[in-house]
Specification:
By secondary structure, the chain is of the alpha/beta class. About 35% of the residues lie in helices and about 25% in strands. It has helices at about 30-40, 60-70, 85-95, 105-110, 110-120, 155-165, 185-195, 210-215, 225-230, 235-245; strands spanning about 5-15, 15-20, 25-30, 45-50, 75-80, 100, 125-135, 140-145, 150-155, 170-175, 200, 220-225. An eight-stranded parallel β-barrel has the order 1-4-5-6-7-10-11-12, surrounded by seven helices. Helix 1 packs parallel to helix 2. The termini are close together. The mean pLDDT is about 95.
Length: about 250
C-alpha cells in the first residue's frame, strides 16, 4: 500500500503565513520559512504554500520567498496563487518549488494545465478545485477564492483536468472548510473511484478520527490542513502515531 501523506497548508500574505475565517479576520501565524522547517522536522510529507494576494506587484516578493523556502526545506513543496500562464510556473519552479498548483486560472483556461504538463511533466502540476454541494445535489466549482460560481461540476472538471495532464487533484469542500467537522468523504471516494491520479483532501479537519476516515472511507491519498497544525491543536507526530495505530500506512 502506498503511504498516505500529511500536508500542512500555509497561506501567504505580504510574506507572512496567515489564517483567516471565510477570508476575513486574517491573522499572522508565523514566518513561512520557519514554520515550514518546523513542519518538516515534525514529519510532514509535503507542504503547500498559497499566495493569497498574488497581484502583479507582489509576485517578486513571493518568488523571493520561494527561493528562501527551497533553501531551508528537505521535503517537497507546492506553490500556488496567481499562476496564469506558463511563465509564472517557470518562475516559481526555477525558484525551487517542486510542484505548481493552479485553480481559477485553469478553470478559465484549461489549456494551462496542458501547457505546464507538456513543458515540465504531469508530476509538476496540481489542479486545485474549490467546490460546494448545493441544493440541486451537485458539486459546483467556484473560482476567485470561492466567490464566483462557475458552470463546471466537480467530477467532470476533475476528469477533464486529469485528461489534460494534471498529476494530482486537490479538492477543497467549501461546505466543510473551516467547520472542523470532518472531510467530504463521499465526494472524495467518488473522485478516487473515477480517477487514476492521486486525490488530496482539504476542508474539515478538526479531530484525529477525521484523518482516519478520509483515508479509509474517503479513499484520499493525502490530507491537507492548516489551522490545526498552525495552532498546535493536532501535532503531526501525534497524528501519525494515531494513524499507524489505526493500521493506516504513513511515512
Amino acid at each position: 500500500m502506498i503511504a498516505k501523506r500529511i500536508i500542512p497548508c500555509l497561506d501567504i500574505k505580504d510574506g507572512q503565513t496567515v489564517k483567516g475565517i471565510n477570508f476575513v479576520n486574517i491573522k499572522e501565524v508565523g514566518d513561512p520559512v520557519e514554520l515550514g522547517a518546523k513542519y518538516a522536522r515534525e514529519g510532514a510529507d509535503e507542504l503547500v504554500y498559497l499566495d493569497i494576494t498574488a497581484t502583479h506587484e507582489k509576485r517578486k516578493l513571493f518568488t523571493d520567498l520561494v527561493k528562501r523556502i527551497a533553501l531551508h526545506l528537505n521535503i517537497p513543496f507546492t506553490v500556488g496563487g496567481g499562476i496564469n500562464e506558463i511563465s509564472d510556473a517557470d518562475r516559481l519552479l526555477s525558484a525551487g518549488a517542486d510542484k505548481i498548483s493552479v485553480n481559477s486560472s485553469a478553470v478559465r483556461n484549461p489549456q494551462l494545465i496542458e501547457d505546464i504538463a507538456s513543458g515540465y511533466g504531469s508530476q509538476f502540476v496540481v489542479t486545485a478545485i474549490d467546490a460546494r454541494l448545493e441544493e440541486d445535489g451537485k458539486w459546483w466549482v467556484y473560482v476567485n477564492g470561492g466567490r464566483i460560481r462557475t458552470e463546471k461540476e466537480l467530477f467532470s472538471w476533475a476528469w477533464e483536468a486529469q485528461e489534460r495532464g494534471t498529476g494530482e487533484i486537490l479538492f477543497t469542500s467549501m461546505n466543510h472548510d473551516g467547520t472542523k467537522s470532518g472531510f467530504a468523504c463521499e465526494a472524495l471516494a467518488t473522485l478516487s473511484e473515477n480517477l487514476s491520479i492521486p486525490i488530496i483532501a482539504s476542508g474539515g479537519a478538526g479531530q484525529l478520527q477525521h484523518f482516519s476516515e478520509v483515508f479509509s472511507r474517503g479513499k484520499a491519498d493525502a490530507a491537507l490542513a492548516a489551522s490545526i497544525f498552525h495552532f498546535n491543536e493536532i501535532p503531526i507526530p501525534v497524528l501519525k502515531d494515531y494513524l499507524r495505530n489505526q493500521n493506516i500506512v504513513v511515512r
